[in-house]
């Protein structure tokens, strides 16, 4: 499986001076475009589009230092002069012209390869389950994505909820598999970069239509991978790590791929201060191509 992903990486390296279509990378890796983007970000630690841009700017720097014209290098990598200067500055912190000054420090985005490694973590606990069509019903907002640490926009949204919102929602929950309050992520931007926007729901799952006072998201019948986590010291970081473990470790090692749809976090046990407890991450899946 990793051989296919590394073949896709080789294709990127061989075509940095050409247009690179995610559809072709997904074809080489024998997966969907959506799944390729998600797993690449988890394995490489950087969104695909940013990785390709930084690899191009890494190679472009060498050509700039060799004395090649800025416009010629920009054209080679598919940029206008202004767009090239912006992309170059984003990685190196200086313009192409400034890069030629003696002693200027530049940055390099190294080419990545994927290897099967032993991380020393405990075995992931998961199950595969089917759910009928249902609705996610609750309150929603659109906030920036944060890969690690506190998401302050999410915290402020929770504080803005009217007292008793959770109790009102629990009265609507009628899907036995998801009886708890749900923290739902959906509507991600295509590149899913840190800081990009997504729709966040404080909600429950119900098979009944919602009343106008609630925001609603319809979810079709799907197969789900459900990942479990428990902590006796710091629950929130452990739950946040579930996404990285699922896409960085579980998906590359199992014959499933993620499909577009809401990603659902539910806390099944917790102390009042979230210092300990347990939770689950639900991701819609299908068998790999």
From TrEMBL:
<protein>
    <submittedName>
        <fullName>AraC family transcriptional regulator</fullName>
    </submittedName>
</protein>
<dbReference type="InterPro" id="IPR029442">
    <property type="entry name" value="GyrI-like"/>
</dbReference>
<keyword id="KW-0804">Transcription</keyword>
<dbReference type="Pfam" id="PF12833">
    <property type="entry name" value="HTH_18"/>
</dbReference>
<keyword id="KW-0805">Transcription regulation</keyword>
<dbReference type="InterPro" id="IPR018062">
    <property type="entry name" value="HTH_AraC-typ_CS"/>
</dbReference>
<keyword id="KW-0238">DNA-binding</keyword>
<dbReference type="InterPro" id="IPR011256">
    <property type="entry name" value="Reg_factor_effector_dom_sf"/>
</dbReference>
<dbReference type="InterPro" id="IPR010499">
    <property type="entry name" value="AraC_E-bd"/>
</dbReference>
<dbReference type="InterPro" id="IPR018060">
    <property type="entry name" value="HTH_AraC"/>
</dbReference>
<dbReference type="InterPro" id="IPR050959">
    <property type="entry name" value="MarA-like"/>
</dbReference>
<dbReference type="InterPro" id="IPR009057">
    <property type="entry name" value="Homeodomain-like_sf"/>
</dbReference>
<dbReference type="Pfam" id="PF06445">
    <property type="entry name" value="GyrI-like"/>
</dbReference>
<feature type="domain" description="HTH araC/xylS-type">
    <location>
        <begin position="6"/>
        <end position="102"/>
    </location>
</feature>
